[in-house]
Amino acid sequence: MDPIVSFEDVEVDYDGRPVLKDISFAVQPGEIVGLAGPSGSGKTTLLRHLLGLKRPVRGRIRLFGDPLVSLSPAAQRRLRRRIGVLFQGGALLSSLNVFENVALPLLEMGLPDAWVHPMVALALSLAGLPPENAPRMPSELSGGMVTRVALARGLVAEPELLLLDEPTAGLDPIVADAFIALMCDLQKSLGITALMISHDLRALERLCHRIVLVGDGHLIAQGRLQDLALQADPRIRSFFRLDGEPGP
Predict the structure, then answer these.
(1) Other CB atoms within 10 Å distance of the CB of residue 81
(2) Whole-angstrom distance, CA of residue 98 vs CA of residue 100
(3) Parent domain of 23
(4) I want to staple 34 with a disulfide (CB 3.0 to 4.6 A). Which of 113, 116, 163, 208 is the partner?
(5) Based on the domain organization, do 190 and 115 belong to the same domain?
(6) Nearest in space to 35 (alpha carbons), one of 215, 155, 230, 243
């Protein structure tokens, strides 16, 4: 099967400053790939390029087999509708309740109310949220619930690809573990394809089929965590705390 996402010798910058170059990796259907690396190494910048919000300096990014740079803005928007995003911190709109936040992608697509209500109810259920939470405002939610509402919003349009930006950041270990367990269940039951930025070593270990590690302006390594653990590169061993050093 063709990859859902493919980076091919990609070079990216941030405000004109080179950040990463020679980036090549792919995300296969049904696979969760972790994108890891030190803070400021360009992980979120890669997601912005994948969403078509920025153009690479060099190389090619393919999404669902289509090269992004050759697509019109309208074609890029159609592709983005096939993607769900969980932003760091949830990024819920404070003026909208839970139901309205989750329904927002469907309303932007112009779906009728008769479709919106059952799809929102299903998304909330998949995210582990009882229906009585639908009228609550974001200010009434705990950090873990905010993350689950953001996940429901990312799932509501039944995306073919889910992008997760630090989904467990700021959560206490118990709540983070509950979210990781939920994602494991969803991956098994729905076969979710996802690209996840994370510093959370537990999330990377338990959720990801492969990990792509970036830093020092390059792709340092990629593979299963157990395979990376066998490598002698001190950057890999430090990041994953394989020798007991402080990690990220």
Answers:
(1) 13
(2) 6
(3) 1-82+161-248
(4) 208
(5) no
(6) 215
Q: Which residues pair with 212 in a beta bridge?
A: 35, 222
User: Which of 99, 159, 158 is CA-nearest to residue 129?
Assistant: 99
Distance between CA atoms of residues 58 and 64, nearest Å? 20
Name residue 133's amino acid.
N
181 with 231, same domain? Answer: yes
Among 159, 186, 215, identify where a domain stops: 159
Residues paired with residue 219 on neighbouring β-strands, in sequence order: 214
Residue type for position 137: M
4 phi/psi in degrees, rounded to 5:
-70, -40
Map tokens 């329904």 to a residue: 103
pLDDT in tens, 227-237: 888 888 888 88
Q: What's the pLDDT tens digit per position in 127-166?
A: 999 999 999 999 999 999 999 999 999 999 999 999 999 9
Kindly list the distances between the CA atom of residue 211 and the CA atoms of 53, 59, 228, in Å, as whole numbers in the listed order: 24, 21, 9
Overall average pLDDT of the 105-113 stretch: 90
Looking at this protein, which amino acid is placed at residue 115?
Answer: W
What is the tally of structural domains in the chain? 2
SS3 12: strand
Tokens of 56: 């690479």
When pLDDT is averaged across residues 120-126 and rounded to a whole number, the result is: 96
| Best CA proximity match to 26, nearest among 45, 5, 50 | 5
Residue 23 CB contacts under 8 Å (≥ 6 apart), including other chains:
7, 9, 10, 11, 12, 46, 59, 214, 218, 219
Residues 71 and 183 in one domain: yes
Q: Measuring CA to CA, which residue among 158, 27, 163, 29 is closest to residue 82? A: 158
